[in-house]
Amino acid sequence: MSDNAILFQTIDWRTISKTIYPGETGTTTWQTCQFPGIRIRIVEYSPGYLADHWCQKGHIVHCLEGEFVSELQNGEASVLTSGMTYIVSDDASSHRSRTENGVKLLIIDGDFLRPPSA
């Protein structure tokens, strides 16, 4: 078995502490589980949230509740609603999120989203 193997387990999100971060406007609340090479989060954006930076990290983002806009630095934007997912690799697209009414997301990121070394 690999040193990075994750044995079967369940996550009771009700027991995971919440950390609040300010956005450019509004706040984001994270509940985070860290494993070798992978991070899993439940993330909530408050109504009126706008991220305070353009992100270069890769993510798999699944919208659990609500609606948000994922903006790309090149001007493109996608609206995601409950049941929709986006995926992006590290350093592939500068992106940031915003929401008018708030949203709840499941976000998974980690080493598997890094592009192969040249």
Question: Could you walk me through the main structural features you see in this protein, from its secondary elements to its overall organization?
Answer:
This protein is an all-beta fold and 118 residues long. It has a domain of 68 residues. The protein is built from no helices and 8 strands. Strands 1, 2, 3, 4, 5, 6, 7 and 8 form an 8-stranded antiparallel sheet that branches. A hairpin with a 4-residue loop joins strand 1 and strand 2. The two termini are 28 Å apart. The model has no long low-confidence stretch (mean pLDDT 94).
What's the helix and strand layout?
Layout: E1 19-22, E2 27-35, E3 38-45, E4 59-72, E5 77-81, E6 85-88, E7 95-98, E8 103-110
Antiparallel strand pairs: 1-2, 2-3, 3-8, 4-5, 4-6, 4-7, 4-8
Instruction: Tell me the β content.
Output: over 45%
| Number of helical segments with 4 or more residues | 0
The string of secondary-structure elements, in order, is EEEEEEEE
The termini sit apart by 28 Å
Largest sheet: 8 strands, antiparallel
- The quaternary organization reads as single chain
**Overall pLDDT:** 94
Strand segment count: 8
Give the radius of gyration.
Answer: 15 Å
Low-confidence stretches: none
Q: Supply the helix-strand structural class.
A: mainly beta
How would you describe the shape? globular
- Work out the helicity level: under 10%
